[in-house]
Amino acid sequence: MVRHEIADSVTLDPDDVRILRSLQVDPRVGFATMATVLGVSELTVARRYRRMRRAGLIRVIGVVDPGALGQSRWMVRLRCRPGSGAAIAEALAQRDDIGWVALSAAGSEVTCAVRSRSAEQRDDLLGRRLPRTAAVLDLQASVMLRQFLGGRGHYWAALTGTLSPEQESALGSGAGSGVGSGDRPFTEQPVVRAHPSQLDTHDERLLATLAVDGRASHVDLAAAADLTPGRASRRLQALLANGVVHIDVEIAPIALGYRARANLWMRVHPAEVKTVGRAMAQMPEVGFAAAVSGPHNLHAVVHCHDLDRLFEFSTERVGTLPGVEGMEISPISRQIKQAGTRLDGDRLSEATGGDQGRP
C-alpha cells in the first residue's frame, strides 16, 4: 500500500490507513479487538490512533439527527459583503445547530447546514438573526426533502479494499458500536421521521458527551448521564438503533488526498430527481446528496483530488445523467466545519461549538 504523504511531516502508513478503515466499520471498536483483527499490538493501535488525532487527521464524534426528533434540516447560502464572509462563517461554526460551514466565491459566499433541534431555534436563526446581519446581502434557505446519501460516502469509498472481507466482518459484528454500521454512508431515507423520538435529561447528557468523544467509554457515559454503566450502554444502543445519533468518523480530506471540494447545485427534471439522486449516491466522489426546495432541486457535496478531476467528474459523469438540465459548480475555498468538527486549515480541530447566540 502506498504511504500517504501529508503536509507538515505527517505520514500515513499502511497500518494507519487500516486503523482508519477499522474505525469506519465500527467507530467504537476497542483497541484490543482492532489489534487482534489487524495483527498488530494493542499498544501500536492506541499510539497510532492518538497520533492521528493529535495531528488533526481524525475525530470520532456523536452527531444527532434532528430528523429523528421531528425537525427538518436546511441548507443555507449567504451572499455577503466583500471581506465579511469569513467572520460570518466563523460565527456560524460556533453554533451547535450548524453542522457544516464552507466559504466559496473568494470568501463572499457562505454555505451552511442547519440542524436545529427545535423549530424555535431554527426560526430564530433563519427568520431573525441572519436577515438582520448587516453584512448579509442575500439569503437563500432550502429545506431538505429527501436524503440520498450522507455519512461522507467519498471517505468510505476511498478506503474500500483496505481490509479483507473477513476483517471487516470481524470488526462489523457490532461489538463496539452495538449496531455494526459504523460510518457507512446513509442510504436513501426521509429527512423527518414519521415517529419522532423523545429524549430525557439522561439522553441529553449522554449525547453531549458523545459530541465531544464518540468513543467515550460506557463508564464515562454513565458518569456524565448519571446512570449505571449497564443502563448507559443500553440507552446508547437504543439511540443508535433509532437513528437519533450516529457515531461519525471524521477524516481530514487532506489525509486522503482530496484537494478540490465543491457544492453542486443542480436543476433536474422533477420526474428524474429520484433517479439522478440515487445515481449520484453510487458515485465515490459524492459525500452527500439530497433533494432540496428552491431554484435548484438537487444538492450534492463532492470531493475530488484536483480541479481537473472535478471538471471531468461534473461534465462527463454528472452532466450526462438523463434529466440534468443545469448545474452550478461552487468550489469550496475554505471548509470551516464539517459534521460537528471545526477545521483549522486542512486539519480537524478539537474546538467545538456551543454559542447559540451568534451570529
List keywords for this structure.
single chain; about 350 residues; alpha+beta; Arc Repressor Mutant, subunit A; Alpha-Beta Plaits; 2 domains; eight-stranded antiparallel β-barrel; two-stranded antiparallel ribbon; 12 helices; about 30% strand
Description of the molecule:
The chain is α+β, with helices and mostly antiparallel strands. It folds into two domains: 4-63 and 154-185 and 197-251, Arc Repressor Mutant, subunit A, CATH 1.10.10; 67-151 and 254-338, 2-Layer Sandwich (Alpha-Beta Plaits). It is built from twelve helices and 15 strands. It has helices at 14-25, 31-38, 42-54, 85-93, 119-129, 153-158, 165-171, 201-212, 218-225, 229-241, 273-280, 307-318; strands at 4-6, 10-12, 58-64, 74-80, 98-104, 109-114, 136-149, 189-190, 245-251, 260-268, 286-292, 298-304, 324-338, 341-344, 347-348. It has an eight-stranded antiparallel beta barrel with strand order 4-6-5-13-10-12-11-7. Strands 1-2 form a two-stranded antiparallel sheet. Helix 1 (14-25) crosses helix 3 and helix 9 crosses helix 10 (229-241). The longest helix has 13 residues, at 42-54. The termini are far apart. 45% of the residues are buried. The model is unreliable at 177-183 (pLDDT under 50).
In short:
With 359 residues, the protein is an alpha+beta fold. Helices cover 33% and strands 28% of the residues.
Question: Per the principal axes of the C-alpha atoms, what is the gross shape?
Answer: globular
Q: Looking at the chains present, what oligomeric state does this protein adopt?
A: single chain
CATH superfamily of the largest domain: Lrp/AsnC effector binding domain/regulation of amino acid metabolism (RAM) domain
- Report the radius of gyration as a whole number of Å: 20 Å
Strand content: 25-35%
Helix/strand order, N-terminal first:
EEHHHEEHEEHEHHEHHHEEHEEHEEE
* Unreliable parts: 177-183
Q: Using the 3D structure, state the CATH architecture of the largest domain.
A: 2-Layer Sandwich
CATH classification class of the largest domain: Alpha Beta
Number of continuous helical runs: 12
Portion of residues within helices: 25-40%
The count of DSSP E runs of length 2 or more, i.e. the number of strands, is: 15
Under CATH, the topology of the largest domain is which? Alpha-Beta Plaits
Judged by helices, strands and strand pairing, the structural class is alpha+beta
How do the strands of the widest beta sheet line up side by side?
A: 4-6-5-13-10-12-11-7
Q: Please tell me the overall pLDDT.
A: 89
How many domains would you count in the coordinates?
2
Taking the sheet with the most strands, its summary is:
8 strands, antiparallel, barrel
For the termini, the CA-CA separation is 45 Å
